[in-house]
Amino acid sequence: MTKKQALKAALFVLGFLFILRTVTYVIRTNGDVKDRFVGFYAEEKDTIDVIMVGSSPVYPTYSAPKLYGEHGIVAYPLSSNSQRPKAIRYLIREALKTQNPSLFIIELRMFTMPDEEWEENMVFTRGVTDNMKYSLNRIQAINALVSNKEERYTYYFDIFKYHSNWKTLFLPSQLVCWDYEEADPLKGLAIKTGVGPTELKDMSYVTEAQAPTDEQVGVLYDLLDYLGETDKQVLFIISPYVMEEAAKAQYNYIIPIIEEAGYDVLDLNEHVEEIGIDFSMDTYDYGSHVNALGEAKCTAFLGKYLEENYDLPDRRGNETYASWEDAWELYQVEQAKAEASCLEDIANEKWTELID
Length: 356
What we know:
Blueprint: H1 3-27, H2 32-42, E1 50-54, H3 58-61, H4 64-71, E2 75-79, H5 88-98, E3 103-107, H6 115-119, H7 122-129, H8 136-145, H9 153-156, H10 159-162, H11 172-175, H12 214-230, E4 233-238, H13 245-260, E5 264-267, H14 272-275, H15 292-309, H16 322-347
Parallel strand pairs: 1-2, 1-3, 3-4, 4-5
Helix pairs in contact: 4-15, 4-16
C-alpha cells in the first residue's frame, strides 16, 4: 500500500468514525437525563463550582438555578435514575475533563441497594454510559458496570441499542446534539408536580449498624481512595425520604467510614423540621422524592449550608454567567406554575397514582 492509499484509508476510517459518533449522539433516546448531560457538556470550561453526583433524588431535590439566584452558587447535577455507585468515580473523572469545581456533592441513597439487582436492568447502567461522550473513561466505566463481557460491545457502540430511533435524526431538538452539547435551560433541574401524601418515619431509635452488601462497601472504599487522589472537597448527602430500618442501619455503618476518611456527611432527614419538609404535601411519590414544594425548601436549606460551610464564590453579576441569570428567571416562572399545581392538587385532594 502506498502512502497515498494509506492516507486515504485513514481518512475514510476517521470519517466513518466521526459519522458513527455523530449519528449515535443524535439518536440516543431523548429525555431529562440526556438533556442534563448534554447541558453539562455545553457549559463553558471551568465555570462550575459545585458538581452533584447521584441517583434520582438529586435532580428534582436541588435546584441549580435557585442556588445561583439566591446565593450565587454555580452547581450542576450529573444525575441519572438509580445511578449505581460504581459509576460515581467515572462521572467525577468525566467532569474533571472540562471543569475544576471546588466541591463535589455525592448522594448516598444507592449505597444501600444491592448492586447486582440494578445491573440486571440495563436501563440504569445505560443512564450513565449512554450519556457520556465517547472516550477512554467511558470504556472504563462500561467495563466496571457491565460484568458480562459478551454484552459490552452493545454499550461501547450504543447505536446497536438505538438503531431504531432513526426518527430523531429529523428532530431539530436532537440534531443540535450532534456533538453531545446543548445548553439545558434549567441547568439539569427537573421540576416535579403531583402530590403523594405520606408520613415521615422516625428512625432515631435505630442505632445499630449494618453493613451494606460487600460489593457496595468495596465500592465505597475504592471511591474514597479515588477522591483522595483528586484532592477535592467532597460533601456526602442523604436527601430526605421515608426510609426503612434496614437503610438507616446501613447509613449508620457507612457514615463513620466516610467521616474517618475526612469528609462531611449531611443527612437532611435529621433536619426535616429546620427545612420545613411536610411529607403530607412535599413529595410526589409518597415519600421517595420531593415535588416542587419540597425542592424549594431543600434547595434553600442546602444553599444556606453551603454558604456557611464552604468558601464558594458568588457568580452573580458576572457576564460569563449570563445563561445562569436566564436559568434563574425561567426557574422562577416554571417553579411558580409547579407550586400552584401542587397546591391545587392538595386543595382538591387529588393524589398521584400509587404504583406498586
